Amino acid sequence: MFILITILILFLTALTLLILRFFTPEFRYSWVIATVGALVGWISVFAWQAQMPIALQFSIWQPSALFFQSPSLIADGISWAFAVSLAALCLAIIITSVVRANFPSPLTWVGSLVLTSFGILAVVADNPLTLVLIWAAIDLVELVTQMRFVEDPRLSERVVIAFASRTIGILTLLWADMVSIVNGQILDFRSAQDANPQAGLYLVIAAGLRIGVLPLHLPYPSESSIRRGFGTGLRMISAASSLILLARIPPSSVASPFTPYLLMLVSFAAVYGSWMWLRAPDELTGRPYWLIGMGSLAIAAALRANPIGAAAWGCALILSGGALFLSSEQNKWMTRALFIGAWGISSLPFSLSATGWNSGGVTFWLAWPFLLVSHAMLIAGFIRHIQRTMTRTGDEDQPIWAKNVYPIGIFLLLMMVILLGLFGWDGTLQFGNWIMGLIASIATIGLLWLIPRLRILNPVRAHWVRPTNASWLEQGYQTLWGVYRQLARLSNTFTNMLEGESGIMWTLLFLALFISFFTQGTP
Amino acid sequence: MNAPTIWILVPIFFGLLLLFINSQRALSILGGVLATSLALIAQFVPIEEAMLVGTFSFKIDSSLTVLGRTLVILPAEGSLLALIYGATALWFFGAEASKTATRIVPIGLMITALMVASLAVEPFLFAALFIEMAILLAIPLLTSMYSPPGRGIVRFLIYQTLAMPFILLTGWLLGGVEASPGDLALAAQSASMLGLGFAFLLAIFPLYNWVPMLLEEKSPYTAGFLLWILPTITIIFGAGFLDRYSWLRSAPELIIALRFAGLLMIVTGGLFAGFQRHLGRIMAYGVIAETGFSILALSLDPKLGIPILFLLIPARALGQAVWSLSLTVIKDQVETMRFGASRGLLRITPFAGVGMIVATLSTSAFPLLAGFPARLALWEGLSRVSISASIWMGIGILGLLTSAFRSLAVISMAEEYTTWERRESLAQMLMLGLGMIGLFILGLFPQIVQYFLSELPTMFEHLGR
Predict the structure, then answer these.
(1) In this predicted model, what pLDDT tens digit does every residue of A481-516 receive, in sequence order?
(2) Separation of alpha carbons A515 and A121, rounded Å
(3) What does the alpha-carbon distance between residue B204 and residue B184 come to, in Å, rounded to a whole number?
(4) Measured between beta carbons, which residues in chain B are less than 8 angstroms from residue A182?
(5) A133 vs B259, B367, B454: nearest CB
(6) Contact (CB<8Å) A506/B401
């Protein structure tokens, strides 16, 4: 019931804002309503703690002989950590919107509230069926939003490609379900301890596809029109809804001979993402790489049979990342406070990501140096972006109330970074693999010392960042496109033959061939 | 009063009457209301049961004898009639928006009635004649004095007509099989004839090349209606064959043949759709894959397969109606439906563009949409039988999804700073909007159609129990 209360609060707030927007466009207190709704929604997530785990059957699909599962939800420690992070992010987006140039913009708040509702539904999904339904909803919302904003035809093509890659992720998750069924098991997240190892790997691949790690691709290299507020929500919620899957993979189900290879692939993606993040001219340009870098660390944790660690990286991605991406004003205290975000991703004891380096089963040591370097580059990049205040605007033009309200949004996220390290779920108050955290932190300090001294570590200029044209990546996809075109040519030749003047004869010939083939043996 | 009169003769009679009305709106409303009424009566008025309304008592008999042949509609078939006429009503209500009501309503009503007759006639041999009559009636639906038949229509007529002798021969041979069940050669001959007959009727690969040609040449709405009603009822007719003959039902070769044919339809339909550059042809291959899903459902254990087969019907009807209507609206706005001419269409026909994509995604088993639950059940059922078959099904789905993504990329790729300038009428927006909402509702709550579907498997004496 508590899950529904949170979702209802967010949806009703969105609905109220929408009605007000269309019937009384001059209404002046939309922001207050949005803030109160998001605040109550956020507080209501804390109420889940009173009854956890909470299970909720959403609707029962009939006939039951056909459907082994129906949409259902469950709130446990891991989903709570994600849900409270998402609710906090939503509140922070609305609070910090007071300093945005387009303030007030009730429609973007509606978008944030609805997306957060879907995000929370995704993280409390109890089985793959529920998760694919919510993934599909999030993808459609994202598609519609992007289509509405994008003007450049090349960018609209990228939007469709991103949608396609996410859909392939959905198909992969469904395939994991099929693989489980072949082995006589029904895949659900509650009794996932008995999950099939092959299915576990497909789950990792599904999450990797949706985040852009497996295979490495950048769903949204450029997103200028909706960058700060709503754009941050869109990217983070979408990532969280995919990362929850990693936290649901039981340790036993990733014990496969393919795991080391996947781990190596993920390590390379992590190095690429963190390197580009470190050298990005500003935090928003680097955001796709932040997602790839942090997402890779989460996937690597899942592949090391550490679902709690995957969840920890996921929450850190949302909260520390959210705080950084929403910071747009110059403020000395806020710049200092943002170091809490760096602490959150450091994997040091009692930090949010303390469990990030734990390993439950397979430890493929060859991948660890790459992952460690990536971790260090992510923290170093984070600190560098905190300190690059030049990209932020001064707050002199802002009204006094906005100046005072805006930092609350950022502090709220940073407070959550601390809180989730200490309270509420399985990843709290952990020493974790502190040695790795310490090595990564020392490497970070080294990198920060080297940045002004080594030219290669300096940020590239904004116009040099052309992620869409990353030559080797682009070449790979061009080759695939070439194969596709050749296949299309072949298919057209075949259909033209069947539809041409001699088509009927060809058809009968094929029919005779099929019959003779079929009578010779089984397909 | 008897059931064949209500659900066969009355629609034919009204169809003839409606030929004299020219108003699109009046036809759409009249046809829609009539089909809805027939659906409601089928669902709520039991056949072969005495009913008392006030002081008036009546009973709907199940059979009607005409020229020594009997048309029988059993009580268990009430929900099927409701489903068929309900879906027909959906097409008729959308006919005004597609501006095809003057043809589709009167002729469509008669075609529907003839297809129902093909299910009801005894001996079943005569079903082939009713189907052939429906096919012949489809010709004036697709052509006119000003629009002569193209190659697609000619092939449609040839292939569908070729099915008739095979079905008739099957009926004749089956009589022999029943008389001497031990004659394996005769059984094999009759099974082959039956297979060929259904291959022509259901346009199984490679006999489906008329489908894309038809959708390229003619109005997507009228072609879409035919491509819904003909295969849907034919496949139920085919399931009736399986139900009637135990030797056919229990033949392992038949199960393999059905699985092979279904997968071939899904894979070739999906892959060809993925490579097309014409929006109408993409729909054609989507329709082919839809038929493939139904055939594949028949290959499963009947306890699973038959409910899946019926679950596929409402999703197909609604999805195909939305798809056809969307393409009809789009066709009005562009020279051809080739990709080159369809760039940026989303800005001028947003409802039709979105409708087309949503319908394509629904056919491609995209979650949240009407096609998903039935395909999920089918995929799961198939996985239990054969993992390689389920991989092939996945490939087909991937091909269909590719076609949806490519269509979306093309229609959304407008020149920079092109303004949104909607050119759809209110009726078109309303019908497409309602259709899309329906697709989402069916995708999220598939249980709501169980009211109609739950008892349907019992219409088959052996398969459904």
Answers:
(1) 889 889 989 988 888 888 888 888 888 888 888 777
(2) 51
(3) 26
(4) 383-384, 387
(5) B367
(6) no
HSE-CB at B329 with a 13 A cutoff on CA atoms is: 31
- Can you tell me the distance from the alpha carbon of B210 to that of B151, in angstroms, rounded to the nearest whole number? 8
List the single residue in B with minimal CA-CA distance to A512: B206
Q: Are B339 and B277 in contact (CB under 8 A)?
A: yes
Between CA A62 and CA B316 the distance in angstroms is 18
Are B76 and B459 spatial neighbours (Cβ–Cβ below 8 Å)?
yes
Cα-based torsion angle of the residue sequence A29, A32, A33, A34 in order, rounded to the nearest 10 degrees: 120
- Does the distance separating the beta carbons of A491 and B155 come in below 8 Å? no
Least confident residue range of A322-336, B208-222, B297-311: A322-336
Contact criterion met (CB < 8 Å) for A156 and B414: yes
Nearest to B82 by CA among B118, B36, B51: B36
Q: A385: closest CA among A448, A440, A313?
A: A448
The interface predicted TM-score (ipTM) is 0.90
- Chain A closest CA to B181's CA: distance in Å? 21
Expressed in angstroms, the distance from the first to the final Cα of chain A is 51
- Closest listed residue to residue B441, CA positions, set B384, B362, B331, B326: B362
Which of A153, A171, A178 is the closest to B415 by Cβ?
A: A153
Q: Among A293, A299, A298, which Cα is nearest to A280's?
A: A293
Residues of B with CB below 8 A from A59's CB? 444-445, 447
- CA of A492, closest CA in chain B: separation in Å? 8
For residue B443 the two structure tokens come to: 């995708």
Burial class (CB in 10 A: 0-12, 13-18, 19+), B455: middle
The answer to whether the Cβ–Cβ distance between A137 and B383 falls below 8 Å is no
